[in-house]
Amino acid sequence: MTGSGEQTFLFEQNPTRVANSERDALLANPGFGRVFTDHMATIRYSEGRGWHDAKIGPRKAFDLDPSTLVLHYAQEIFEGMKAYRLPDGGATLFRPDANARRFRNSALRLAMAPLPEELFVQSVRELVRIDRDWIPAGEGAALYLRPFMIATEVLLGVKPSAEYLYCVIASSVGSYFKGGAPAITIWVSENYTRAAPGGTGEAKCGGNYAASLAAQAEAMQEGCEQVVFLDAVERRFVEELGGMNVFFGFRDGSLQTPPLTGTILPGITRDSLITLARDMGLTVREEPYAIDQWQADAESGRLTEAFACGTAAVVTPIGKVKGREHSFTIGDGGAGPVASRLKSALLDIQNGRAPDPHGWLDRLF
């Protein structure tokens, strides 16, 4: 098989797949990221041959040589997306073409072989169709999909790998934050930054998340659920949370979110919310917003709500902000009306309860 277009996936059924009764018990309360399906999709890449050996097979451990490049030089990228159960029993993906495009851009930034976008979407579709019984029902439940790619050439040398393994695994999930998190408290990181101009901030690679963990641990020590990062140059402007984009809502009904200048991940949920907000007649500005201005606007009442967003957490209200030099409550400390309205609108489309005017759903069965 060559490197472009769709391919035929060979299928090997997992001989030790989970029994129906055990699966149903797991789906009753899956939590987030701990319950996995029976199968995974894999495709290999090698220079001179391109993408080949497309398979859907049993979910199992990788056998990696200790000198495999990814273990030493971190050539690794991933995506996060979901399959949703529809009211009629069918299932759908949400904007998989956008995930495929971002995955390709991440690969190019990390000097990795770009996976054809149609092959990315095909791999996800194939896996969901086979593990369809793992899609949980209920509000906030979904099948979380994790496509990722790693450098697999066996070599100790700093260079782009000549071989890659692409894989998709799936996890049945409920709410990202325990208890549903009516509003979270976030910690302003002053000691750490997430990304700098010219870096990998707009790529979805593991290194970005590894760099955020010390700050996230600090946030948790301070009694906060998440950390928010400021820009690396002036340490003034709000960029994003540890794993989510952020929006600010004002008394005049407008919204603002930091612009995509290369240091912020271009979130698909972020983009969808901007579109839905404008559909509702709201003004949305993509402009820098300073942390001191955020506090001043919250204290004056000009800012009435703020919320984070991402595939995993969907829309999560921010109630309080804490830091060495900052401490303030946003609105009444709970969910604001715009965040609630946007979350309902997005979930209704994703779960097939409302019309899909933008053609975002990709029905599977």
TrEMBL record:
<dbReference type="InterPro" id="IPR005786">
    <property type="entry name" value="B_amino_transII"/>
</dbReference>
<dbReference type="GO" id="GO:0009098">
    <property type="term" value="P:L-leucine biosynthetic process"/>
</dbReference>
<dbReference type="InterPro" id="IPR043131">
    <property type="entry name" value="BCAT-like_N"/>
</dbReference>
<dbReference type="GO" id="GO:0052655">
    <property type="term" value="F:L-valine-2-oxoglutarate transaminase activity"/>
</dbReference>
<keyword id="KW-0808">Transferase</keyword>
<dbReference type="Pfam" id="PF01063">
    <property type="entry name" value="Aminotran_4"/>
</dbReference>
<comment type="pathway">
    <text>Amino-acid biosynthesis; L-leucine biosynthesis; L-leucine from 3-methyl-2-oxobutanoate: step 4/4.</text>
</comment>
<dbReference type="InterPro" id="IPR043132">
    <property type="entry name" value="BCAT-like_C"/>
</dbReference>
<feature type="modified residue" description="N6-(pyridoxal phosphate)lysine">
    <location>
        <position position="204"/>
    </location>
</feature>
<protein>
    <recommendedName>
        <fullName>Branched-chain-amino-acid aminotransferase</fullName>
        <ecNumber>2.6.1.42</ecNumber>
    </recommendedName>
</protein>
<keyword id="KW-0100">Branched-chain amino acid biosynthesis</keyword>
<comment type="pathway">
    <text>Amino-acid biosynthesis; L-valine biosynthesis; L-valine from pyruvate: step 4/4.</text>
</comment>
<keyword id="KW-0663">Pyridoxal phosphate</keyword>
<comment type="function">
    <text>Acts on leucine, isoleucine and valine.</text>
</comment>
<dbReference type="GO" id="GO:0052654">
    <property type="term" value="F:L-leucine-2-oxoglutarate transaminase activity"/>
</dbReference>
<keyword id="KW-0032">Aminotransferase</keyword>
<keyword id="KW-0028">Amino-acid biosynthesis</keyword>
<dbReference type="GO" id="GO:0009097">
    <property type="term" value="P:isoleucine biosynthetic process"/>
</dbReference>
<comment type="similarity">
    <text>Belongs to the class-IV pyridoxal-phosphate-dependent aminotransferase family.</text>
</comment>
<dbReference type="InterPro" id="IPR018300">
    <property type="entry name" value="Aminotrans_IV_CS"/>
</dbReference>
<dbReference type="GO" id="GO:0009099">
    <property type="term" value="P:L-valine biosynthetic process"/>
</dbReference>
<dbReference type="InterPro" id="IPR001544">
    <property type="entry name" value="Aminotrans_IV"/>
</dbReference>
<dbReference type="GO" id="GO:0052656">
    <property type="term" value="F:L-isoleucine-2-oxoglutarate transaminase activity"/>
</dbReference>
<dbReference type="InterPro" id="IPR033939">
    <property type="entry name" value="BCAT_family"/>
</dbReference>
<dbReference type="InterPro" id="IPR036038">
    <property type="entry name" value="Aminotransferase-like"/>
</dbReference>
